[in-house]
Amino acid sequence: MNVAILVAIAVVLILAIVVLARRSRPDAVSDFHRQINALSAESRRPVVDQVHKFEEQTDQPVEPDQPEDAERPDGS
User: Most Cβ neighbours (<10 Å): which of 3, 36, 40, 67?
Assistant: First the structure.
């Protein structure tokens, strides 16, 4: 009887570990976007300004919330 209880506890622990390990963790970029979107427009302004400066320096536009392989509205 004691062995059955120990086996049951072990199975429950293993299942809990597997479930917790497989949980999707938020992507760092998505997490950042969520935090920025939670701020007021005035609070966001320094970050938006930094993004615009980065775009000017690299000549690469930054498109928020767009995966690289997503189809774009212009069909490209």
Answer: 36
> d(Cα 37, Cα 20) in Å, to the nearest integer?
28
Q: Cα separation of 13 and 76, whole Å?
A: 49
Between CA 62 and CA 68 the distance in angstroms is 11
Q: pLDDT by residue for the chain (76 residues), tens digit each?
A: 789 999 999 999 999 998 888 777 767 888 888 887 888 888 878 888 888 888 888 876 666 555 544 444 454 4
Tokens 């980065």 locate to 54
pTM of the model: 0.34
CA distance readout (Å), 60 to 3, 22, 50, 57: 63, 35, 13, 8
